[in-house]
Amino acid sequence: MRRPRIAVSRLAAAATALAITATACSGLNSASGEQEFSGKTLTVAGTWNGGEGKAFRKVLDGFTKKTGAKVKFLSSRAQGRDDFALYIRDLRKSGKTPDVAMVPQVGVLQGFAQKGWLEPLPPEVELEAARNFALVWQNYGSVRRIFYGLYFKASHKSTVWYNPKIFEKAGVQPPKDYAEMIENGEKLAAAGTSAFSVAGKDAWPLTDWFENIYLAQAGPANYAKLATNEIGWTDPTVIKALKTFGKLFKGGKLVEGDGAEALRTDLNESVGAVYDKDPKAAMVYEGDFVAGIISGEFNRDVDEDADFFEFPPVGKDSQAPVISGGDAAVAMKGAKNQQMAMSFIEYLASPDAAEIWAKEGGFLSPNINLNLNAYPDDTTRKVAKSLVDAGEAVQFDMSDQAPGEFGGTPGQGEWLLLQQFIRDPSDPEATAQKLDEAAAKAYLDASATGTTG
User: Fold this and answer.
1) Same domain, 152 and 173
2) Fewer CB atoms near the end CB (10 Å): N or C, the chain?
3) Same domain, 77 and 147
4) CA pair distance 122, 136, nearest whole angstrom
């Protein structure tokens, strides 16, 4: 049930330099102009739809241009399927296993590997990953020291977005620590604007709030243990973080409408409360994707009308948290085109592939060799630099690492219990006990069915 953090072997990566010259695996090495996969079709499954789907289609077109391969993209969301793991399971059962899957959660990647659904990535892909990614990203793509997943798209979930005009009017600046952020919130409230709008209706933003507070307050070692249910949710560090989180929802000054209103507010509405024509709050915490909502839903210039600061340290001697998530490319066992799948994943590991989507916007890459000028605005460049500069300090979203029964399902587990908590944050110990019981059951069930690490 517990999985240690492990490093991908550097010896294996170094030893592949000679092997690459002899391998015929990659269709990318086409200096002669030959396109190895011309006339063949690669099938890629992912979650992206709408604007994201169109942007990824351009990435796929880039692979076609390099190799001649046609690429068919299967979007689970376009087919009304929200559970990607079940979507892939059903494709396998119907004999339509995709060549590559873009897995949206590290826990799902681990589950696929443990079920024997994935092919290990070959040395040339590992070498390309070693060139272009911090080791932490390779580790999260590995299960039991075997490299299965190449993280192509990332998110930065430690960004607090604010309305500069409201800050200026209240005479406050981005804070240096959590205590100052709360002090600023009180000043904003006194000036007539609530400090935060919180998307409690969607529930998952509440897990992100808790995780940032917990990582900044309890430190990365405890974060890693809690993420694997090693220390349990009744640990004093959990109760302390719940108390810190709960203070936001007491008194009606810091959160617009307190917990009751937060539970009626989804993510887009929470962003609108800060960036609409008549803002009701000064700040909204969530990931880098808030920038896309600001510009797309509310037609605001992100560089002119918005700004962000990194989620601040919580407590003395603590560090600012950097929490991320992402989508990893994996090669499915039993698919028809494994050689082409490996070449495609090697392509995704390159700065060239990342640059295609970066220019379209709504995208962050953990690729350290991607030129930041590829991003379409200064704000996104700042967020991307913050993520890349964090290097090995990046921690993955805790709820994404947990079994879906606990960390990823509406109306149950952590999502439900944190919703109940912000409605009435008076008893963090009782909430911790309920979280502990729900987590224990979910991890036990996942261990029995082999769906988590």
Assistant:
1) no
2) N
3) yes
4) 19
Structure tokens at 64: 């076609």
Report pLDDT for 11: 38
Same domain, 90 and 163: no
Question: pLDDT band at residue 450, thresholds of 50, 70 and 90?
Answer: low
Cα 252 to Cα 242: distance, rounded to the nearest angstrom? 18
SS3 of residue 394 by DSSP: coil
Considering the domain architecture, whether residues 74 and 171 belong to the same structural domain is answered as no
| Contacts for 69 with CB less than 8 Å, ≥ 6 apart | 27, 35, 37, 38, 40, 41, 42, 63, 340, 344
Q: Which of 349, 371, 396 is the last residue of a domain?
A: 396
At 236 the pLDDT is 98
- 269 with 297, same domain: the answer is yes
Q: Which domain CATH number covers 243?
A: 3.40.190.10
Q: What is the mean pLDDT of the chain?
A: 90
Tokens coding 235: 């640990």
Q: 359 lies in a domain?
A: yes
Residues sharing a CB contact under 8 Å with residue 240, sequence separation 6 or more, in sequence order: 217, 218
- Decide if 333 is inside a domain: yes
Asked if residue 31 is part of any domain, the answer here is: yes
**Model pLDDT, residue 257:** 85
How many percent of the chain have pLDDT more than 90? 82
* pLDDT tens sequence across 110-168: 999 999 999 999 999 999 999 999 999 999 999 999 999 999 999 999 999 999 999 99
Q: Are residues 58 and 96 in the same domain?
A: yes
pLDDT in tens, 155-198: 999 999 999 999 999 999 999 999 999 999 999 999 999 999 99
Look up the pTM and report it: 0.87
Which of 258, 287, 310 terminates a domain? The answer is 310
Q: Are residues 143 and 165 in the same domain?
A: no
Give me the amino acid identity at 223. Y
333 within 8 A of 119, measured Cβ to Cβ: yes
Count up the domains in the chain and report the number: 2
Q: Which domain holds residue 392?
A: 10-156+325-396
> Is the CB of residue 292 less than 8 Å from the CB of residue 300?
no
DSSP 309: E
Q: Bridge-partner residues for 46, per DSSP?
A: 75
Long-range CB contacts (within 8 A, 24+) of 377-381: 377/291, 377/302, 377/303, 378/303, 379/291, 379/302, 379/303, 379/306, 379/307, 379/308, 380/288, 380/291, 380/302
Q: What is the dihedral of CA 147, 357, 323, 342, to 10 degrees?
A: -10
Residues facing residue 29 across a β-bridge = none
pLDDT confidence band for 19 (50 / 70 / 90): very low
